[in-house]
Design brief:
Strand content: 15-25%
Strand order of the largest sheet: 3-2-1-4-5-6
CATH architecture of the largest domain: 3-Layer(aba) Sandwich
Structural class: alpha/beta
CATH superfamily of the largest domain: NAD(P)-binding Rossmann-like Domain
Largest sheet: 6 strands, parallel
Order of helices and strands: HHHEHEHEHEHEHEHEEHHEEEH
CATH topology of the largest domain: Rossmann fold
Shape: elongated
Length: about 325
C-alpha cells in the first residue's frame, strides 16, 4: 500500500478508512472476549470502541482490563498495531507531508505586482550577494529566482526579495514580472544558463547578462541570446595575473568594468595608512565612499567576501567594486 504516492487529501481519507475498519473489527472482538470473561457490563459497542481507542493510542487508563490469556494476547496485539498505525503510517505519510506542504506554501512564488523596472537574478551565490549589495546601495529594484528551497528560506531571513520556482520555466519569469523588468542576470551552470536564455528569448526581448563558468562556452551562450557574457573567474584571473607582474595596482586606469558604470579595482594599503589597525566595519569605507569591499589580498592569500571585523594590516590590498566616481572618492580617502 503506497500511501506516500497519493496526494494529501487521498492519504488522509485512506488512513481514516483503515483506522475506522480496524477499530470496528477490534471492537467486535473485544465484545466477544468480554462475554467470554463474564464482563457483561463491558460487552457493549460504545465501551468496546473506548477500550480499543485508548489501547491503540497506548493511553491505557486501566479502568477496563481483559484478564484471560486470550484477552491479554489480544491487548498486546492491539497495542502493537496501534503503534504501527500511529508511527508507521500517520506520521510519515500524513503528518510529515502535510507539514512539508504547509512550509512550501509559505515560500513566495510570485513577486509583488508593484515591482517594475527591476533586475531579475537567476540563481544565488557569493557573487550575487556582492551584486545585490551594490543594487541596494544604488536603490536598484531587484528580485532573485532560485529553485533551492533552503536558499530561498535563507534569503527570506535576510529580507532579500526572492521567489521560488523552476528557473527555466516561462511561468516563473512571469511571476517575477519579466514584462516590466529592466534586464536579467543569469547565474547558474552554463548548460542551464543556455536553457534559461532560450526560455526568456522565446517570451520577451530584453537585455540578458550571463555569468559563465567556462569562458570557452561564451560564444554558445551568445548564440542562445545573451546580450553580454561575463566570466567572474576570468576577471579574478586577470587580477591575479596583474598581481604577479605588479603587486600594487592603484590607478583607475587599471579598473575593469564588470557592469555598466560599475568597475572592479585593487587598492593597496600603504605603510603608515590611517586604516591600519582598524576593522573594515569601523573604517566605514563603504559608508564614506560608496564602494563595496569584495575581497582582500593578505600577502599571497586572497580572501573573497572578507569578514567586516577583519583588522586591516599594512600592505593589504583591497579589491573593491563601485562606479568611477566612488572609486575616485576612495582613492582620495585612503
Amino acid at each position: 500500500m503506497k500511501i506516500s504516492k497519493l496526494n494529501p487529501s487521498h492519504s488522509i481519507a485512506l488512513y481514516a478508512i483503515i483506522a475506522a475498519l480496524l477499530i470496528l473489527v477490534y471492537s467486535i472482538i473485544f465484545v466477544f472476549i468480554a462475554r467470554l470473561e463474564n464482563q457483561p457490563e463491558n460487552a457493549d459497542i460504545l465501551t468496546s470502541i473506548y477500550w480499543v481507542v485508548t489501547t491503540m493510542t497506548t493511553v491505557g487508563y486501566g479502568d477496563i482490563v481483559l484478564t484471560s490469556n486470550l484477552g491479554r494476547g489480544f491487548s498486546i496485539f492491539v497495542q502493537i498495531s496501534g503503534l504501527t498505525i500511529l508511527f508507521g503510517m500517520l506520521f510519515p505519510f500524513i503528518i510529515v507531508p502535510w507539514l512539508e506542504n504547509t512550509i512550501k506554501v509559505s515560500i513566495p512564488k510570485k513577486a509583488d505586482s508593484s515591482l517594475d523596472n527591476h533586475i531579475i537574478i537567476c540563481g544565488y551565490n557569493n557573487l550575487v550577494e556582492t551584486l545585490i549589495e551594490e543594487f541596494e546601495r544604488h536603490d536598484y529594484p531587484y528580485i532573485i529566482i532560485d529553485d533551492d528551497e533552503n536558499v530561498i528560506r535563507g534569503l527570506l531571513e535576510k529580507n532579500v526579495p526572492c521567489i521560488y520556482g523552476d528557473i527555466a520555466a516561462e511561468g516563473t519569469f512571469i511571476n517575477a514580472n519579466i514584462n516590466s523588468a529592466n534586464f536579467v542576470i543569469v547565474n547558474k551552470s552554463d548548460e542551464l544558463n543556455a536553457n534559461i536564455i532560450l526560455s526568456i528569448r522565446g517570451y520577451k526581448d530584453l537585455n540578458i547578462i550571463c555569468l559563465v563558468e567556462n569562458i570557452s562556452n561564451a560564444k554558445y551562450l551568445r548564440y542562445a541570446g545573451a546580450t553580454r557574457v561575463l566570466s567572474p573567474k576570468s576577471i579574478l584571473g586577470h587580477f591575479i595575473g596583474n598581481k604577479a607582474v605588479d603587486p600594487f595596482v592603484g590607478t583607475l586606469s587599471e579598473a575593469t568594468e564588470i557592469f555598466d558604470r560599475i568597475k572592479i579595482l585593487e587598492f593597496p594599503v600603504y605603510p603608515r595608512s590611517f586604516l591600519i589597525g582598524t576593522s573594515l566595519k569601523s573604517s566605514r569605507i563603504s559608508e564614506r565612499t560608496g564602494v563595496n569591499v569584495v575581497g582582500i589580498w593578505k600577502g599571497g592569500d586572497f580572501i573573497l567576501n572578507p569578514d567586516p571585523d577583519d583588522t586591516i594590516q599594512e600592505n593589504w590590498v583591497l579589491l573593491v567594486v563601485g562606479t568611477v566616481e566612488q572609486l575616485t572618492k576612495l582613492k582620495q580617502f585612503i
